[in-house]
Design a protein that fits this description.
Number of helices: 6
Largest sheet: none
Shape: globular
Number of strands: 0
Strand content: under 5%
Mean pLDDT: 91
Oligomer: single chain
Structural class: mainly alpha
Distance between the termini: 45 Å
Order of helices and strands: HHHHHH
Helix content: over 70%
């Protein structure tokens, strides 16, 4: 697919989103977050930051990230998600606030022994 259409083609992005949805359904929220984030960034190369498909992909990334139970995985993916959400000025500001608050909480939370 990527050789025919290109990695940033609409078809390739749709395949990344399908993979993200499959990862979400399988309970692999870390992979789903990563794939949704990748899809959003790729969409931003061809679409405006306020495009509905961009917002839908960002919402997928945020949802999957909020489902991460593994503290380390959430801390790893969180900063990239914050940067992504900041690049979407028309996105509901509460999404960015939620992400930042959870990251702050995770940084304060003691590590399990």
């Amino acid at each position: 697919m990527s050789q025919t259409c290109g990695l940033a083609s609409p078809e390739a992005v749709e395949w990344v989103e399908i993979r993200a949805d499959l990862a979400r359904m399988a309970g692999d929220f870390a992979l789903a977050t990563q794939l949704w984030t990748t899809a959003t960034r790729t969409r931003l190369t061809r679409q405006a930051p306020d495009a509905p498909d961009v917002h839908a992909a960002a919402a997928g990334a945020l949802y999957c990230w909020t489902q991460l139970k593994d503290r380390k995985a959430a801390l790893t993916a969180g900063p990239d998600l914050v940067r992504l959400l900041r690049s979407l000025p028309s996105l509901d500001a509460r999404h960015l606030q939620l992400t930042q608050q959870r990251l702050q909480f995770l940084h304060r939370e003691p590590s399990p022994h």
